[in-house]
Amino acid sequence: MSTPHLFDVKALRRQRNRHAASLMADPFLLELMIERLLERLGDIKRGFTDMLDLGGRHGLLARALERIDPVVRPVVLDPAERLCREAPGAGVVADLETLPFARESFDAVLSAGSLHHVNDLPGLLAQTRQCLRPDGLFLAVFAGGETLCELRRVLMSAELEETGGAGLRVAPFVDVRDLGALLQRTGFALPCVDSDRLTLTYADPWQLLGELRGAGEANVIRDRPRQPLRRAVLARAFEAYAREFTDRRGRLVVTVDLVTATGWAPHPDQQRPARRGSGSVNLAKAMGVDPDILAGKLSPPGRPPR
Q1: Global confidence as pTM
Q2: What is the sign, positive or negative, of the torsion defined by CA atoms of 63, 69, 72, 74?
Q3: Would you call 79 helix, strand, or coil by DSSP?
Q4: Among 136, 246, 263, CA closest to 200
């Protein structure tokens, strides 16, 4: 059964090409994601030489990697030709969901700020896993969870109240709780997923919408409404935003959940969880308690028997 396509891949490519200049101005949120990614990469005590920057835009992450290690020449893949032309080294124009690489081409696949627009995330992860050599690293940082939940809520409520119906104006993001199992299901070893919640503030809604458009993050949902929002809908939405989601200074509050996902291509020498029942330390002895208490046969001191 084919995966339903939530996102319009052609619209995403058009947006990235159209807003290439502003994308290359390096929005601070992308810089923050890259900073998080490099921190995690720095915690890994080994080097990588053949790297893929997945959805790398104009190569901001690739340039940072080259500054850390001049020997590294990451391959940058992005759907937008105008961005790829500006990337250092090899730039590959391709959709994120169809990776044009042979098996075991890279020892690391990295991605900052691009996986939230993928239709078939399990398929992409499976392809990424095939591109990695044994013991190769997959590391991604992207927006997920409750990102832009305030904007989604006020737009949907306002459109429903004004017109009696509401289109999907803000796309859903990946649920962090499902991602670890998804990494494991697509063949990754030692999967690890965590999320950090950021609270950003903006002077007004137009500043927020302008930054989203400039970052190539306008609505690319495949079944998005083709008509722009009516002025009355926007006015009602902006009033609700100012009423419900502002800080003490009167600035609009915006939630961004930064998701970090790590997985490894399997290798015989990797650490593995111990087999159940293989422990050699007696838990009761280590805790200094009667084994019958842990087994539920006796009540702890001071507690009446059940």
Answers
A1: 0.84
A2: negative
A3: coil
A4: 246
Q: Give whole-number Cα distances, 139 to 42, 52, 119, in Å.
A: 12, 11, 19
Amino acid letter for position 35: E
Encoded tokens for 261: 């996902």
Contacts of 145 (CB under 8 A, 6+ apart): 173, 174, 175, 176, 195, 197, 257, 259
Tens-level pLDDT at each residue, the chain (306 residues) = 456 688 888 988 888 888 777 777 757 888 999 999 999 999 998 889 999 999 999 899 999 999 999 888 899 999 999 989 888 888 999 999 899 999 999 999 999 999 999 999 999 999 999 999 999 999 999 999 999 999 999 999 999 999 888 888 888 899 988 999 999 999 999 999 999 999 999 999 999 998 888 777 878 888 877 777 889 999 999 999 999 999 999 999 999 999 999 999 999 887 765 555 555 556 555 566 666 655 566 566 655 555
For the record, the structure tokens of 211 come out as 């930054």
Task: Measure Cα distances from 198 to 160, 253, 255, 281, 293 in Å.
Answer: 28, 10, 6, 42, 44
Determine whether 88 is exposed, middle or buried from the number of CB atoms within 10 Å of its CB (0-12, 13-18, 19+): middle
d(CA 298, CA 72): 62
Structure tokens at 118: 């993928």
The structural domains of the chain, ordered by start, are 9-146+171-203+255-294 (3.40.50.150)
The owner of tokens 């809908």 is 233
